[in-house]
Write a structure and sequence with these properties.
The chain is an alpha/beta fold. 34% of the residues lie in helices and 21% in strands. It is globular and about 90 Å long.
Length: 760
Amino acid sequence: MKYIDVILPLPLDGTFTYAVSDEMAARLAMGVRVLVPLGKTKTYTGLCAGEPHDKAEGIEPDKVKMIIAVLDHAPMLLPHQLRLWQWMSDYYMSPFGDIYKAALPSGLKREEGFRAKTETCVGLCETYRNARALHVALDTMGRAVKQQQVLTTYLALSGWDAVDDGGKCANVVEVTREELVNECHCTLAVVKSLCDRKILYVYEREVGRLNRGGDYRPELVKPLSEAQQDAYNRLLMQMMKKNVVLLHGVTSSGKTELYIHLIAKALGEHKQVLYLLPEIALTVQITSRLQRVFGDRLGIYHSKYSDAERVEIWQKQLSQNPFDIVLGARSAVFLPFHRLGLVIIDEEHESSFKQQDPSPRYHARSAGIVLAQMVGAKTVLGTATPSMESYYNAQTGKYGLVELMTRYQGIQLPEVRVVDVKDLRRRKMMSGPFSPPLLAAIREALAQERQVILFQNRRGFAPMIVCKVCGWVPKCKNCDVSLTYHKRLNLMTCHYCGFTQPVAQQCPNCGNTDLTGRGYGTEKIEDRLRDIFPEARVARMDLDTTRTRNAYERLIDDFGRGKTNVLVGTQMISKGLDFERVAVVGILDADSMLNYPDFRAYEHAFMMMSQVSGRAGRKGKRGLVILQTRSADLPVVQQVVRHDFKGFYQDLLSEREMFHYPPFYHLVYVFLKHKNDSLAEAAAQEMGALLRRRLGERVLGPDKPAVARVKAMSIRKMVIKLESGISLRDVRAALRQVQSQMMEQDRYKSLMIYYDVDPM
């Protein structure tokens, strides 16, 4: 009898020990999946965390359950992947089982497993595989004209019409039933009739779901400009000295071309490349650029792909013929790589790289850097607006730094004009979301057959509905937020829990029927634009219009080809999209970003405004950005106007140091959740006191967060500020000990405690 330690896909720490027969033990290794029992009735697909061993530590042998089945012939996980999981679980204080749940596609976590995709094909029964038998078959069909047509069509498509009397045919190909039915314009019943007569038969053929992009064509790698070549040479030099290099290149400087050259170099050295992007929309544009060069050596991996596709990519990466390059969103960091040599993290500043909910709350940038270090690969971080942490690491010598400060072909950075909407509204020159300068710029761009992007970081029609008489606002029944009005759906929706209800027709407080939408979401902006510019072809890109995988492709393709000429969107339009004919970018409400109650508000606002500005004037004439704000005199607004990242960085850095924020301090947020608000408050106060005994004044709070009730759970939050040099391992141990003390009390059994390490 042997024992095996197993990871289960449950929010639990550590591993579970199971017994295994000697015969089964011979088939087990780290990363092999096993079917195991848990409790009286449940079974789970677990992963072996190591090799079989002889002792069940701390457990009576007769109480150890047996594994039910071994599900794999070979491991589904490579050793360095498990090390990455262990690091993530430890660093982000996330249960090991949550890492497993996040990492593996669902099809690999179900006991029935992954089913290969098949299609139904039609074959010719052996009796009729000679010319004489086929002539007899056609003659006996008499007046069954449709059956004759289907058979002759099948023979032509398959090549069996060239068969000789000896039954030999040089070029027989498989024919799908769908292909045959479409070619003959017949029903399945006709094909079934031929099968009943034992002339044809049907069978299932396994087919891959993965796209085939053609051959690798290194000759299509474009020559670099003089500035790009210089940056590329400096990148290679820095990569010889440093494991991580920050490429700080202004928008439209050609960072993607540098990546393509780096990828080609890695392939020449027989290494694999992981290329991470923060937004699925970005993969749509970059995929076509990379596929033209790298063909079917490129794989794509993100959450909009079906689970079956993700399983196939996972299995291909474990095979002897894996993708050499994987382009994907943050979950691609979990994929298996045998020969990983380069990790590219594009738009590294993006908060989308941070997983928020559910656990694990990891940052794909940090995970990608750690993964690269584990396997001896290099990491390149690319952006026009570096995160404070990455730029600080580059300035202090921890990372290498390469700067590319000129746009491709010498095109100027866009002109940014600030419009003071507070002054315009005071003078009654502006009532809606568009200022006169913005309307004029849009009108001129459309007249010149150029394109416009309008950025509004709120989706829906109106952020809230208000009673004009008493001020009543409809709220979510589960969360402390107002419901957003979605006109197309004719619903009010909570953007936190998904709760919906019909649009209110009258105020429940005073009976008034005069209810009005307050504020502007992307849906309302789109409607207003159609009213003002009926000739414009307007499209909207937000979460509501991009719920399917193909929606991204359609919207981006239509705008790229000029089928639409005005694109309204949320932050997803700010992230590295490349369109040639955009003349004007409008930032409709900078204040919604600047006034957000978070220490990163100015950093995120500067990045978002700079990035969305960079969509203008990427080819040809210099672009124009209209930035609408009520805070025109803020230094950060003027720094956006001047494209002054370094000035912004210096101002923010001194502020961060003064108030003990990153990059000088590590932050850990501690969250407590409970259905009972008073119990959540009592638990938070008690845990705060226990933590202060161990960590002193580093612990701030507890307080109610901005949204203190979500999905019917009351929330309390503490902030822990940890100075550089402190042992993070000791801090994590202290947090876990305090959590254990709390959970030992019966009244806190249903209390949820979780952590957000390095919050965004």
